[in-house]
Amino acid sequence: MLDILKEITNQLPKGKVSAAAFEGANIVLYTKDEEYVFSGTSEVKAIVNKLKKRIELRPDPSISMDMEKAEKTIKKLIGKDAGIGDIMFDPQRSCVVIQAEKPGVAIGKAGEKLQEIKKKTLWVPTIHRTPAIKSKIVENIRSVLYENSDFRRNFLHKTGQRIYNGWLRQKKEEWIRITYLGAGREVGKSAILLQTPESRILLDCGINVADNKAPYPYLEAPEFKIEELDAVIVSHAHLDHVGFIPYLFKFGYRGPVYCTAPTRDIMCLSQLDLVKIQINEGKDPIYTSEEVKEMVKHTITLNYEEVTDITPDVRITLYNAGHMLGGSMIHLHIGNGLHNMLYTGDIKFGKSHSLSQAANTFPRLETLMIESTYGGKESVLPPFKEQDEKLKSIIEETVKRKGKVLCPVLGSGRAQEVLVIIQNMIKEKRIPELPIYIDGMVWDMTAIYTAYPEFLSNSMRSRIFHKNDNPFLYPNIKHIGSRKEREQLIESTDSCIILATSGMLVGGPSVEYLKKIGDDPKHTLVFSCYQGPGSLGRRIQQGEKSFSYREKTTTVTVELKLQIEKFIVTGHSDRRELMNFISRCSPKPRRVIVNHGEPRQAADFASSIRRTFNIEVNLPRNLDALRLK
Ligand code: ZN
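Above: inputs. Below: predicted complex with zinc ion.
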């Protein structure tokens, strides 16, 4: 047993603690004394206050009620109203996860039902929401975790050992350094290595889907050694931030991946989709579903503003980024107060239909690493209302022509935002009630949105929970789940809206639709997200009037005659919002590092920050390293 576990056990009455283990940064004590499970809490609390570590007292697995009997007891205690689904026991950790349609009802007033369950069964219950739309991926992830209960207990313990290894140890000379393995003066393949004498941490690990020449981060950089890596922290689930993580597992990484629960689920889906697209294109996939599964087994989820140690000298907190469901900014408290850094990932510091705007208050902050996708001075987004009106008239015109509106969307985030905007317009009777067809992984993403409404904005939550008005569940939403259904939809003469991945028209169903409806002027193509250089989307925006594809042995050329429009619903902040974020950041950073922007945008943004705030600004290229302390 490590020192800290010994020390805690010694502070409690003799013979009460049967086992002590880490679960990541948390410490779990088990007791075989049924009464002590409840009476010991105050003694444990006293230690928590002294050590400032999270410590939990649980019944030893040997005294928990038989599972079959416990399941019956749980169902009886919770009652029918909560809509109980699966009940999954984690016998190694005395934990039970109960799925419920109405978690609030299952938990009871001030958690009284949970208390009751723990008392009667000696299992520690957690309630998970059953997604309103059945989601295979959520089910699969949950079952992977529970099938690997033994593995998880060991893995979490090992992670804790690493975190506490060095606890109370003498300090080494302190320094902090970051290296850009990607996202330096580019949008795509975010991967930033943070090094201290004690830690090696990777912030994001993405790919650049639009770049055929250099799609992957520079893992060959001399300072990156996969066997030394302590942790990966993920800001959000877009492929340019997570697309390369399973590759780390392919090459032997077995440490933790930290992110929010929706990020975990959405990133799995995006990675599996990427593998599928690569196989369909006749390429060798860069990794397989096995490595995605390995990643899931090693993922530790955190809530916003939950503080956790991840190595002996780094403590992290995730903050809402406003960019997509579960998307986070990563705050790093390094070297016990030596330095505080915020990595924004992608942020929206402004209004959106379904998410709250990015947080801007932090306990401490010296260095700010900020994205600059729309950092250039010309990147000012039109007002919210104007965009809304624009989409309304695009839809109206297309309906008049009896055409279809094809909207290539990023699977997550923007697609759901577009969906909410359209549903709102229908609800307010500003446009006719049209069917919305969802194709590709947008469907599964939407299902994940229904699994984690806690991560939506206050107003969206109150709409869902109090007014029973969930725009993701309106009956006009239809799922296209097969090639046949897609063909039928293309053949049909009715007007509709189609939301399909990929957002930049690089593979996926959006391209399949464009192949078939692109030459008919009654339809409309509406871009709704950033189009990377080299992507078909970008080429069309730059004026290309046709595109070709291979069908078996022939080359087919499609003349683009449909109406082409751009409707901006970005999860990113525009130039004004980014500047606003910096000026309203509390406390004020002393240094800003600009990343995740095309060279001109990033450079322009960097010089404006320098001028406006008169602080040190860096604009690293890939493979540049910076010393922070
Ligand atoms: Zn993003």
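The longest strand covers residues 17-23.
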